[in-house]
TrEMBL record, chain A:
<feature type="domain" description="Leucine-binding protein">
    <location>
        <begin position="44"/>
        <end position="410"/>
    </location>
</feature>
<dbReference type="InterPro" id="IPR006311">
    <property type="entry name" value="TAT_signal"/>
</dbReference>
<dbReference type="InterPro" id="IPR051010">
    <property type="entry name" value="BCAA_transport"/>
</dbReference>
<dbReference type="GO" id="GO:0006865">
    <property type="term" value="P:amino acid transport"/>
</dbReference>
<dbReference type="InterPro" id="IPR028082">
    <property type="entry name" value="Peripla_BP_I"/>
</dbReference>
<dbReference type="Pfam" id="PF13458">
    <property type="entry name" value="Peripla_BP_6"/>
</dbReference>
<dbReference type="InterPro" id="IPR028081">
    <property type="entry name" value="Leu-bd"/>
</dbReference>
<keyword id="KW-0029">Amino-acid transport</keyword>
<keyword id="KW-0732">Signal</keyword>
TrEMBL record, chain B:
<keyword id="KW-1133">Transmembrane helix</keyword>
<feature type="transmembrane region" description="Helical">
    <location>
        <begin position="354"/>
        <end position="375"/>
    </location>
</feature>
<feature type="transmembrane region" description="Helical">
    <location>
        <begin position="288"/>
        <end position="313"/>
    </location>
</feature>
<dbReference type="InterPro" id="IPR043428">
    <property type="entry name" value="LivM-like"/>
</dbReference>
<dbReference type="GO" id="GO:0005886">
    <property type="term" value="C:plasma membrane"/>
</dbReference>
<feature type="transmembrane region" description="Helical">
    <location>
        <begin position="201"/>
        <end position="221"/>
    </location>
</feature>
<keyword id="KW-0812">Transmembrane</keyword>
<dbReference type="InterPro" id="IPR001851">
    <property type="entry name" value="ABC_transp_permease"/>
</dbReference>
<feature type="transmembrane region" description="Helical">
    <location>
        <begin position="248"/>
        <end position="268"/>
    </location>
</feature>
Length: 454, 400
C-alpha cells in the first residue's frame, strides 16, 4: 500500500518542486507599482460598474447601467453632453478624463455581498478599474465599499439608502450622493402629521438587513416625536417574495398605519399583498387605515400598478422636478432629455444618482489633476456644486455624504400615462434634513485614512 | 515518494506543477488582445479555484467513497468563514489561528449534524443534511444576527479588539490579513512583453494547503480506512451482516469532509475578511455537488477540475456583455452582427448558468464519469495506437 521508494531522480524532483513552492511567496513584495492601485498607463481609463442584474433590485440595476453608459458617452464627448452643460464645475470638456478616453466594465452583484465583492475584485484585479460604482442594496454597498477601501480604489456609491453607508460603516475611499433613511424620515414626518394627524399607531414591516434596520429606526424615531405609537416591528427576509403571512397579523394588531420598509421587488410584492388583504379599505380606531412606503421610485410605482395610488413616500430626485419646482433644480431637464432620446423613457432616481456620481468622480479627477484616490477624496470632500438636478449640494467632508433637498411624493390618483405615476407633494429644504455627523444613528464608525493602494 | 505509489505520486506532482505555475497557465493571452477576456490568472479567481478545489476534494471523500450524498456541505463552509472572521476581529490578523479555528469549529459542527443525519442513508440522509443546512442559513440570516450580522455580512471594523494585534493599522485603516508579516493581498506583478503575470501571496498559501489536502485525500483513498468506505458504498447491508458497524466509518468520513469544507471557508475569509449568510444557502451546497459530479465523483483529481470549471464559468463567462459581443462580431455586416449577438446573448453574461447547465447535461449523459472519464477516453485513443506498435501491456490502467 504505502511504500517509500527513494530514487535519485525522485528526490531531486521533489526538492525542486518544494523549493519553488517555498521560494515563491518570499519572492513576492507588496510594491508592484509605485503611487496607487491601477494607475492608468495607456490612453484609456477604466471604470467598474457593479450593479444588480438579478435578484429583487434587478430593475433598478438595469436603469443604473443605462445611466452609467450615458455618463461615459457624455464624458467622451459623444451625445448631447447631458448635465455637463448645466454642472457648476467646468473642469470637464468632453475629452474623457484628464485626456484619457473612458471605458467601462460591468458586473452583476446578484444583490449578494459575496458575489458583489467577487465581481468588484475581478474588475480591480483583472480589468484594472480605477473606480467602482453601483449598488442598489445597502448591504452590498457596505461590503463593496469596504473592499474598495482595502484595495485602494474610489467607491462612488449608487443607490444605497442605509444610514450605515455613511454612518457606522463609512470609509475614506467611499462617497455617497444618494440621500439616506434619516433624511427620508425627517422629510416625511411633517407631511405625515398633516395628512394623518398626530395620534396614530404604526406597524412596521422591515427588510432584514442594514438598510431596513436603519430606515425603521429613523422612521420610528421621527414618527414617535410626532406623538405616534409603534405597535410592532416585524423583520422580513430580503429574498422573500410572498408577504401574506406577514400581512395577516397586521389586521388584528390595532395598528392604523402600516409602514413598509421595503424596496424594489420586495415593496411591490408586500404592497400588493397588503392591498389584496383589504387593508386600505379598513377603518381602525375610527380612522382610515393608511400605508406608508418611506422610500420609493417610479420603477416601483410601475411594478405596483394601481395599488400605489395615494401612497406617501420620499425620493432623492424625480424627472419632473425642474418643470414643477422651478429652475433651482436645473440639470434635470437636460438629463431627462438625453436619457429619453437614447432609451425612450424618463430616467429613475437610481439612474440620476449613478449618472451624477460618475460625473462627480470625473470632475474631481479633473480638478485634482490625477487619478490618485487620495487626491480625488480631497477634491470631493467639502465640494459644493449645483446643476446636477438636485439644486445646490454639499459633499460633506466629515462623512462623505451629500446634503441636498429631499422630495416627498405620492402615488398619482389619475396618472395621465405610465411616466406620471408619482406626483411631487413638496420639496423639503436641505436645512431640515441636515444632521450632526455625530448623531447617535450615525455614530460608531470612522472614515479612517484614505488608502491609495499599492 | 511520500509513501505513495508511483501513479499517485505522478498525479500529485502534476497537481503541484499546475498550481505553482497557475499564474502563467491561466494567462495565456496577451493583455491587449481580444482574447484577454478569457484570461483567468488574476489573484481573486485563482484563489477561488484552489479554495473550491479543497472544498470539492473534501466533499468527494464523503460522496465519492461512501456514496452518501450530502446536500448541506455549504453550512460547514459558512461556519468556517464566520469562525475565521471572528478570529480576525478578536485575536489577530494572522491567518493561522483563524484557519485552525475554522477547521475545528466546522469539524465539531459536522460531528453533531453527522451524528443525527447518518442514522439514515440514501435520499433521507440527503434531505436531513439539506434541512440542517437550511436551518443554519436561516439562523445566520436572521436569528443569530448579533453573531453573523445577517444579510449585511460579518465584516471587520476599526473598533474590533484584536488582542494580539492592532485595531487600527499605522495608516489609519483596518489592518489586512497576513501570515507572519506576509500580507495575503500582496502581489508581485511580472511584465513580460504584453503579458502580465500576477503572483499573489494569498494564492500560494491556498495552493500549498490544496496540495496538502490533495495528498491527504490520496492517502485516505489508498488506506484500509478508504477501502472500508468503499465497502460501505458498494453494499452496506452485506457489511452489516458480516458484523461490522459501518457508522463510525461514515461518521469519520463526514467529519473529515466537514473539516475540509471548514478549511475552505476559513481560507475564503482569510483572502477576503467577510462572511455572508448566502455562503450557506442550498445553492452553494448544490454547487459543490455539481463540481464533484462534473469532474468525476470518486476520482482523485476530478473534483478539483470540476471546481475550476464551474468557477471559470461563473467569473469569466458572466462578464461577457453585449458590448463585448459586438466587438467580436464587428467584422460581420450589420444585420448579421446583430443576429449573431442575439443568438449568443442568452448563453453569456447573465446566462452563464444556462451554458453551464447544458455542459453539465452533456457531461452527465455522454461522460457519466465526469471530465476525468473524458480525459481517459482521449488517453486511451493515443494508447491504443501505441499498443499496436509496442506489444507490452504495461500501461493500461487509467489514472484514477
Amino acid at each position: 500500500m504505502s511504500k517509500m521508494n527513494l530514487t535519485r531522480r525522485g528526490v531531486i524532483k521533489t526538492g525542486a518542486v518544494a523549493g519553488a513552492g517555498l521560494a515563491l511567496p518570499t519572492y513576492l513584495s507588496a510594491a508592484a507599482h509605485s503611487g496607487y492601485t491601477n494607475a492608468p498607463t495607456g490612453d484609456t481609463v477604466t471604470l467598474g460598474f457593479n450593479v444588480p442584474q438579478s435578484g429583487p433590485y434587478a430593475d433598478e440595476g438595469a436603469d443604473e447601467l443605462r445611466a452609467f453608459e450615458l455618463a461615459v458617452e457624455h464624458l467622451n464627448g459623444e451625445g448631447d453632453g447631458g448635465m455637463l452643460s448645466t454642472f457648476s464645475s467646468k473642469a470637464l470638456d468632453g475629452t474623457g478624463i484628464l485626456g484619457k478616453k473612458v471605458t467601462f466594465v460591468t458586473g452583476d452583484t446578484q444583490t449578494k455581498s459575496d458575489a458583489a465583492r467577487a465581481s468588484a475584485k475581478s474588475m480591480i484585479e483583472k480589468d484594472g478599474a480605477i473606480m467602482i460604482s453601483g449598488g442598489s442594496s445597502s448591504g452590498v454597498a457596505v461590503a463593496v465599499q469596504g473592499l474598495c477601501q482595502e484595495a485602494g480604489v474610489v467607491f462612488m456609491a449608487g443607490l444605497t439608502h442605509s444610514n450605515d453607508t455613511t454612518g457606522k460603516d463609512k470609509k475614506a475611499n467611499g462617497f455617497r450622493h444618494f440621500f439616506n433613511a434619516y433624511m427620508s424620515a425627517a422629510a416625511l414626518a411633517p407631511v405625515l402629521k398633516n395628512l394623518y394627524g398626530a395620534d396614530r399607531a404604526a406597524y412596521h414591516l422591515t427588510a432584514d438587513y442594514t438598510w431596513g434596520w436603519t430606515q425603521q429606526e429613523s422612521i420610528q424615531a421621527a414618527t414617535e416625536a410626532l406623538g405616534w405609537r409603534t405597535v410592532n416591528n416585524v423583520l422580513t427576509p430580503l429574498a422573500a417574495t410572498d408577504f401574506s403571512s406577514y400581512i395577516t397579523p397586521v389586521l388584528n394588531s390595532g395598528a392604523d398605519v402600516l409602514v413598509l420598509n421595503h424596496y424594489g421587488g420586495n415593496m411591490v410584492n408586500s404592497l400588493t399583498n397588503a392591498v389584496q388583504f383589504g387593508l386600505r379599505d379598513k377603518q381602525v380606531n375610527g380612522k382610515n387605515f393608511e400605508i406608508v412606503v418611506p422610500l420609493y421610485s417610479e420603477l416601483m410605482a410601475k411594478g405596483a400598478g394601481a395599488n400605489i395610488k395615494g401612497i406617501v413616500g420620499s425620493q432623492n430626485w424625480d424627472w419632473k422636478l425642474e418643470n414643477q419646482m422651478g429652475a433651482k433644480y436645473t440639470g434635470t431637464n437636460a438629463f431627462v432629455q438625453s436619457f429619453g432620446n437614447k432609451y425612450g423613457f424618463p430616467p429613475s432616481q437610481a439612474a440620476q444618482t449613478c449618472y451624477a456620481q460618475t460625473l462627480l468622480y470625473a470632475d474631481a479627477a479633473a480638478r485634482a489633476g490625477t487619478f490618485n484616490p487620495c487626491a480625488i477624496g480631497e477634491a470631493l470632500a467639502g465640494f459644493e456644486f449645483d446643476g446636477l438636478g438636485n439644486g445646490p449640494t454639499l459633499y460633506r467632508a466629515d462623512d462623505h455624504q451629500c446634503f441636498k433637498d429631499v422630495l416627498v411624493v405620492k402615488g398619482a390618483e389619475n396618472p395621465e400615462d405610465e411616466f406620471h405615476l408619482v406626483e411631487i407633494v413638496e420639496v423639503t429644504p436641505t436645512e431640515q434634513v441636515t444632521y450632526d455627523p455625530n448623531h447617535p444613528m450615525f455614530a460608531g464608525g470612522a472614515l479612517g485614512a484614505c488608502n491609495p493602494g499599492a | 515518494m511520500f509513501g505513495l505509489e508511483k501513479k499517485d505520486a505522478t498525479l500529485l506532482l502534476i497537481v503541484a506543477v499546475l498550481t505553482m505555475c497557475a499564474p502563467f497557465i491561466l494567462n495565456p493571452f496577451p493583455s491587449d488582445s481580444g482574447l484577454a477576456q478569457f484570461n483567468a490568472g488574476y489573484p481573486d479567481l485563482m484563489q477561488r479555484f484552489v479554495i473550491f478545489g479543497i472544498f470539492a476534494i473534501g466533499f468527494n471523500i464523503l460522496f465519492g467513497l461512501t456514496g452518501y450524498l450530502s446536500f448541506g456541505h455549504a453550512a460547514f463552509l459558512g461556519v468556517g468563514s464566520y469562525s475565521a472572521v471572528w478570529m480576525f476581529k478578536l485575536l489577530s490578523m494572522n491567518v493561522i489561528p483563524a484557519i485552525l479555528l475554522s477547521v475545528i469549529v466546522a469539524g465539531a459542527f459536522a460531528l453533531i449534524i453527522g451524528f443525527v443525519s447518518l442514522r439514515r442513508s440514501g435520499i433521507y440522509f440527503s434531505i436531513l443534511t439539506l434541512a440542517f443546512a437550511q436551518m443554519s442559513f436561516a439562523l445566520a440570516y436572521s436569528v443569530l444576527t448579533p453573531i453573523t450580522n445577517g444579510e449585511t455580512g460579518l465584516q471587520l471594523s476599526l473598533n474590533d479588539p484584536r488582542i494580539l494585534g492592532t485595531s487600527i493599522s499605522a495608516d489609519g485603516g483596518i489592518p489586512v490579513t497576513q501570515l507572519f508579516g506576509i500580507e495575503m493581498r500582496s502581489t508581485y506583478a511580472m511584465d513580460v512583453g504584453p503579458w502580465l503575470f500576477q503572483f499573489n501571496a494569498g494564492y500560494y498559501l491556498c495552493a500549498i494547503l490544496l496540495l496538502l489536502a490533495f495528498y491527504l485525500s490520496i492517502r485516505i483513498f489508498r488506506s484500509p480506512f478508504g477501502l472500508m468506505l468503499r465497502a460501505v458504498k458498494s453494499n452496506q447491508q452485506r457489511m452489516n451482516y458480516t458484523g461490522l458497524n459501518a457508522r463510525p466509518y461514515t461518521l469519520a468520513a463526514f467529519v473529515i469532509s466537514g473539516m475540509y469544507a471548514g478549511l475552505a471557508g476559513g481560507l475564503l475569509a482569510s483572502m477576503d475578511p467577510l462572511a455572508g449568510a448566502e455562503r450557506m444557502q442550498w445553492t452553494a451546497s448544490g454547487e459543490v455537488v455539481l463540481m464533484t459530479i462534473l469532474g468525476g465523483a470518486g476520482t482523485l483529481i476530478g473534483p478539483v477540475l470540476g471546481a475550476g470549471f464551474i468557477k471559470y464559468f461563473e467569473n469569466i463567462f458572466s462578464k461577457i456583455n453585449d458590448n463585448v459581443l459586438h466587438q467580436w462580431f464587428a467584422f460581420m455586416p450589420d444585420g448579421l452582427e446583430d443576429f449573431m449577438v442575439t443568438i449568443v446573448h442568452p448563453f453569456v453574461g447573465k446566462g452563464w448558468s444556462l451554458t453551464l447547465g447544458l455542459m453539465f447535461m452533456a457531461v452527465v449523459i455522454f461522460l457519466p464519469g465526469g471530465l476525468v472519464e473524458g480525459g481517459q477516453k482521449i488517453g486511451k485513443l493515443f494508447r491504443r495506437k501505441k499498443a499496436a506498435e509496442d506489444t507490452s501491456p504495461a500501461a493500461k490502467t487509467p489514472a484514477e
